[in-house]
Amino acid sequence: MTAISLLLGQSLLVLVAAPFLNGVIKAVKAVFQGRRGPSVAQPAFDLLKYLARESVVSEHSSWIVRCAPLVYFVTSLAAAGLLPTFFDRPPLERLGDVVVLVGLLALGRFALALAALDTASNFGGMGTSREMAFAALVEPALLLALFALAIPVGSTAVAEVAGGPWGPARLLALGALFIVAIAETGRIPVDNPDTHLELTMAHEGMILEYSGRALALVTWASHIKQVVVVSLLAALFLPWGTAQQAQLGSLAVGVASYLGKLTVVGLALALTETSYAKLRIFRVPDLLGAASLLALLALISGYVVGR
Amino acid sequence: MTSVAVQSVTLEDQVRGLLTDRAVVRHTGERLAVEVPVTDLPESCARLQHGLQATLATMVGYDDRARSGGYRLAYVFQAPDNWLSVEAAIDPETAAFPSVTPRLPAAHLYEREVHDMLGLVPEGHPDLRRLVLHDDWPAGVYPLRKDFDPAIPVPRVEGAPHRFHHLHGEGIVEIPVGPIHAGVIEPGHFRFAAVGEVVLHLETRLFYTHRGIEKLAEGKTAAQALALAEHTCGACALSHAVAYCQAVEALAGAEVPGRAAAIRSLLLELERLYNHVGDLGNMCAGVGFAVGASHGAWLKELLQRLNERVAGNRFLRGVGRLGGVRRDIETSQALDIQQTLHQVRGEFERFVELVLETSSVMERFRGTGRVETESARALGAVGVAARASGLTGDLRRDQPYAAYGALMVPEVVQSQGDVQARAQVRIEETRASFALAQQLASDLPDGPISARMPSLPPFAVGLGYTESPRGSNVHWVRTGADGTIDRYRIRSASFCNWPVVALAVPGNMVPDFPLINKSFELCYACLDR
Asked: β-pairing, B471-479 with B461-468?
């Protein structure tokens, strides 16, 4: 299988699966809340609706506001290319490792933060300050956890890291990365993706000024980023069922198992969101600090318990 | 001599002892009215409040130029066992009176409102910015004066923008929110001054929903104005309707039959139930605890469907009638109430357990949005907000109306004054309301459901009050020469409690504001009227 066709196929899968993953999480949450929720296709319908509408931009804003959605979208999609999804190896394997992955996510966040500040709206500013404060704690935890897994295999390539040994280090890293996943997907107890309360928003505050096509792009990029985070967990901790060769049968199994993994991790996220209230904003660093601590323990236990 | 008379004589002596010789005490029905010279207003109000442990229940200004040649003010106090009003005439030339607010902070909003709506100037009031009327209202046009005709549209002007308080200092950010919000809620403008996430000061600008209910009521018959009264607010429609009916009945000296009184109390408890249960669910939404929020919404829905089956309306509208109630409760409906409440009560306990045992929810509730007892008392807080801050007032117990005189309404009070205390008060009151409603539904007295209303005497004043889910509603009605309504003043619970919200927020985090606001769950429409 050529890298190009793998990249195209995987990108297409991610683009389509992204809104549906969000739909599945919403549906699961609705069930837990005893409601009949919207269809799992609703986020996709929403994207189509936004795409058909014109984008209104504040006249006080600069080119940054117009470029940021593109940057966010492209970095998120590129990050997806760095991960193995249904195939054994990531399509952009030669271009980057886990460090590049973290960098791409940070770049997307940076673009969005600049855009939110550029509109000079209060909620943009508040959302940005919160998001960046969280990010300053999330990114070290993410890197640390990934290094804890990378050191035993002596490589930062995603496929190599995924094939590392199972041990206490891996379980501790799983704990750290799950907390990171909650924060990166903007979910309770860190942020509330469903809120309309202007004063409590972090991620939603940053994108408040967007409308129409630009909003579609930003929302889609958020969905893709969610798939990236979930795929990272799936690749590292559920490394089964991926296609080894470019044969129809094994590819079909790979795609099916990938979608199954997305659902399983999505279910775990939905369950967490259902069980907790949102944290007091100054308690969020405690939770994210716990992620860093777990990651650090993973790193140390790699040496203490042995590789 | 009946016991009531003994008490009112004592009260009268007390009042005379507290005031100077210039005060004239007279009886109007069971209430005491004290006429004082306008210069004595602040001193008299302060002395009565401190001397009798009375609280300011409402304040009314009205245009009496046609009859007495001037404006009049009435400060109505709720003493422990009676109501009394301190009244003064105001010279129409100066249209000024000494402000009571420096002595009684609870008078703050009332005096600003009189300033806006009647053009009476409370001299020495600390803050005479506009309250009810907004920037585009022309200066010198006073809606509640008798020479203002509501049928003629008022041309709007480019007025001076509202002066907000500004805090200056390094790192202080002003965050304006609203009046249009991202959710489907009523309009209100909130302006925070914050350092980082910590709120230093909150200023509210409300009164975006003015419908001129009080002006519209002027010249209407008492029966016509009932429709206005119950549209003051959606969530407390029945409390307002009953308070109004009681004001008119007191004015006319009408007796409400026992069955009608019991039905009023029963439906008022159903109103409290669906509000409290819904509000508890909303508090869960305020901390992003969606399971609790949807559980609360479900129970509220069950209760509102019961309302519809029993009263024909989910919001209990169209139930009130002067002299009684409009709809009877059949035996089958009384049974339905008992069965439904039994079922909802069980579910409610499960809901409460879910909320109280979710530590992440309680962690958010605890210590958030604290109101000290002294602040609550000084600002005249009522209802859940007051009872969560250590004040015990509950009109159902203190001044029983409808069928409450024969019922045991338990005293629910918490002292911490935070969001958790307000949640706890709601939980306890909901439990009590379940019991009260069950008791009323199982034992409705026989008899007619309404009495004939006598015609209303001219120039008489009636006071009606209910303890709504949000606190006391006080309705003040005065008739004109022909027995139609001359002045109608609605004082809702929210009117008293909005200043308390502004006080509860500073010191908390910006994202805690929605939770604090929901823990008070005030109404914008019945503040504004």
From this structure: antiparallel
Q: What is the pTM (predicted TM-score) of this model?
A: 0.86
pLDDT digits (tens, 9 = 90+) for B161-218: 888 888 888 888 888 887 888 777 888 999 999 988 889 999 999 999 899 999 999 9
Residue A30, H or E segment: helix A3-32
Chain A touched by B175 (CB under 8 Å): yes
Contacts of B512 in chain A (CB under 8 A): 280
- Please tell me whether residue A218 adopts helix, strand or coil conformation: helix
Which of B172, B302, B510, B518 has the most A C-beta neighbours within 10 Å, making it the best mutation to test the interface with A?
A: B510
Each residue's pLDDT tens digit, A12-67 = 999 999 999 999 999 999 998 888 889 999 999 999 999 999 988 888 888 999 89
- Chain segment B259-312, per-residue pLDDT in tens: 999 999 999 999 999 999 999 999 998 888 888 999 999 999 999 999 999 999
Q: What is the pLDDT of residue A1?
A: 56
**pLDDT, tens digit, 9 for 90 and up, residues B480-526:** 888 899 999 999 999 999 999 999 999 998 888 989 999 998 888 88
H/E run at residue B430? helix B419-442
Q: Are B79 and B22 within 8 A, CB to CB?
A: no
The per-residue DSSP string of B221-264 comes to -HHHHHHHHTTS-STTHHHHHHHHHHHHHHHHTPPPPHHHHHHH
> Tens of pLDDT along B241-260?
999 999 999 988 888 999 99
Please tell me if residue B361 touches chain A, with a CB cutoff of 8 Å: yes
Give the angle subtended at the CA of A152 by the CAs of A151 and A153, to the nearest 5°. 90
For chain B, which domains are there?
3-123 (3.30.460.80), 172-205 (no CATH), 213-528 (1.10.645.10)
The DSSP result for B491-510, as a single string, is E-HHHHHHHHHHHHSTTSBG
Buried b (16+ CB within 10 A) or exposed e, B409-425: beebbbebbbbbbbbbb
The ipTM assigned to this model is: 0.79
- Considering CB atoms only, which of A35, A189, A192 is closest to B294? A35
Distance from CA of B295 to the nearest CA of A (A): 7
Is B418 part of the contact surface with chain A (CB cutoff 8 Å)?
Answer: no
Contacts of A274 in chain B (CB under 8 A): 290-291
Nearest by CB to residue A281, choosing from B284, B286, B511, is: B511
Residues of chain A predicted below pLDDT 50: 307
DSSP-assigned beta bridge partners for residue B475: B464, B490
* Chain-chain contact of A276 with B360 (C-beta, under 8 angstroms): yes
Does a cis peptide bond (omega within 30 degrees of 0) precede residue B179?
yes
Closest Cα of chain B to A186: distance in Å? 13
A117, A273, A278, A281: which to substitute to probe chain B, counting the most B Cβ within 10 Å?
Answer: A278
Percent of chain A clearing pLDDT 70 (strictly above): 98
Q: How far apart are CA B188 and CA B195, in angstroms?
A: 22
Chain B closest CA to A283's CA: distance in Å?
10
* B353: pLDDT strictly greater than 90: yes
The verdict on a CB contact (< 8 Å) between A276 and B358 is: yes
For residue B292, the chain A residues in CB contact (below 8 A) are 277
